[in-house]
Amino acid sequence: FAWSDSTPVIIEAFQAVTANRLRLANEHIQQRVKAGRTPQEATNETGLELVRLAEIHCRGFILQSAYAAIEQACQTASRPLGEILREICRLVVYDEALRITGDLLRFTTMSDPDLVELQRKYEASLGAIRPNAVSIVDAFDYPDFILGSTLGAYDGNVYERLFEDAMKSPLNQEPVNRTFELYLKPFMRGKL
Amino acid sequence: VNKDLLDERSKCTFDKDEFTLWWVGGKEKLNAKRDREHFCMNQPEFRDSVPLHFASHQEVYEETIRKATTIFSKTRELLKKQGYDANNFVNFMDIMLGDGFIREVNPLRIHFSMFIPSIKAHGSAEQQDRWLQKAVNCEIIGSYAQTELGHGTFLRGLETTATFDEETDEIVINSPRLSAYKWWPGGLGLTANHCIVMAQLYSKGRCHGVNPFMVQIRDEETHMPLAGIEIGEIGNKLGYNGVNNGFLGFKNFRIPRSNTLMKNAKLLRDGTYQKPISSVLNYGTMVFVRVMITRNMAQLLAKAATIAVRYSCVRRQSVIDPNKPEVQVIDHQTQQVKLLPQIAKAIALKLTADNLWKMYEATQVDLETGNTDRLPELHAMACCLKAVSSADTAAGVEVCRLSCGGHGYLTSANFLSMYGLATAASTYEGENTVLYLQTARYLVKVWNQALKGQRLMPTVRYLEQYATKPAKR
């Protein structure tokens, strides 16, 4: 499979990896059967390969679905929105590709310089999305009461909220906890 | 508003409202979502009466059941006023299942997500008339009991028996040993008074495999467990504690034969068992649930990323240039690599769930004409997507938590309950490794079909070109 770091080619590379892993897993099942295992035993003994190829097949489908949906959205979206959506798509594709570099080096024509270039593009993509990060998550449109977080509120008043929540702790409802009389005081005076 | 966040927002290069419309799925959906949120936000009864992350296990249940029942009643009232079909349970789904409304999860969740859909999926028309309306109106509250203490995803291993007694026209349900006790079903502990029970059906001395049965488990007036039923709650968990998971054991418990759910398979008066036309028909419900899980996981990861990104712009940490002040944490590349892929992943998962949902709808249309061709393909894809989405979301929430340092460790940051939700999804509806193996089994099958030159289904058609040409390294 001829490697290039364009988004559609990387997605096809996931398919190439799945197909080649599937070919190998199938061969290994057959070999085990020939060696006297039952088909069920042979499948069990090929379990690690099977799980991994199913996962890569799924990740290829995720990338393909995201790419198709984003390309479709870009046909009607404004140019600035289209640009950020395509950047998001590139980021997730690079991120997934960097997680299976062993497979890409094994089953495609990817070389070490290709890998260096992929890493460079990944870092560039992070830098390109960084200025819009807050606006993207704002656009997810989750109200504060849904997020339910002291750290993630829209107004960003993190420290005030953390302190306010600490004050709600049942242990802060009275200045001295009853355990002082029960345990701490006798303990400190050697009377426990 | 924090000054750093204002600065960030001023740098935006795109129209945020346009993005939101695209993300939510159009103006109509966005308006409905905001109306729903506005309504919920303005009901004082919907707020927690105690901060739940300080509450005990018992307090969590008592508070979540208070909120769930109030939300259902108030929402039904509103829907009636607005002229919606208040009997359509789908109207309640977003509110009842939306974990954001009840952080510790809703004890009525399984009633809406499994019990009601199962009556539709497994009940005959007559049985749907008998129970569906009552369930939608919450006159009865149900759970769905499949998993047992000793058996999970492997259905054929279930031990609960349902033996037909021809003399009385009844089914006798038994839990032969402790490993046969139903274990896990949400709402089963203290909430439900009915339950759909999966059990091995025996008639005329033969086992006909697993079948669903409608079983009343508690008295409708007193809520006391019925004689022959042993029931309770399974205890505290890593998360998901409002959902009220329970256990259930049977000792010679009798139900009428007419409580055997008979949309697909049938048990006749003389004990004759009629098999379902196709065993893959059961896939439909499983696929539906797994698509919902993938959708929920995408939303969950997007929420976690929202929290972590905002925090990372407010929080300052170290200097990059010694002559300049402390920078926002997000300016460190090592922080960007934690946060930004989570945003991208959440979006990709959401778009994939939408795609799978379209496939699901198309397959439902095919099923009405008796065409089951795409069900195995859809099932295989739903299996691995549920696994990848829940595993990646759990990992993503954890990365978001780590990106918020010590503050992310506080329960008030809300990563704990999000992590609880994601890891629960890795566990329920099939353990992830088992699901990957189910997908792999399908892939091996279609690979061998491709080797024989057969045409494959769309999502695996790419395999054809690799199967027909020799392997090269």
Verbal overview:
The complex is a heterodimer of chains A (192) and B (473). With 192 residues, chain A is mainly alpha-helical. Helix content of chain A is 74%, strand content 0%. Chain A has ten helices and no strands. Chain A is flat, with a radius of gyration of 27 Å. The termini of chain A are far apart. Chain B is α+β, with helices and mostly antiparallel strands and 473 residues long. Helix content of chain B is 49%, strand content 12%. Chain B is built from 14 helices and eleven strands. In chain B, the strands form three sheets. In chain B, strands 1, 2, 3, 5, 6 and 9 form a six-stranded mixed β-sheet that branches. Chain B has a three-stranded antiparallel β-sheet with strand order 4-8-7, with no helix packed on it. Chain B has a two-stranded antiparallel sheet with strand order 10-11.
Nearest-integer average pLDDT of chain A: 97
The run of helices and strands of chain B is HHHHHHHEEEEEEEEEEEHHHHHHH
For the sheet with most strands of chain B, the description reads: 6 strands, mixed
- Proportion of residues in helical segments of chain B: 40-55%
Alpha-beta content class of chain B: alpha+beta
Number of strands of chain A: 0
Number of continuous helical runs of chain A = 10
Strand residue percentage of chain B? 5-15%
Which range does the strand content of chain A fall in? under 5%
Biggest interface and residues each: A-B, 81 and 95 residues
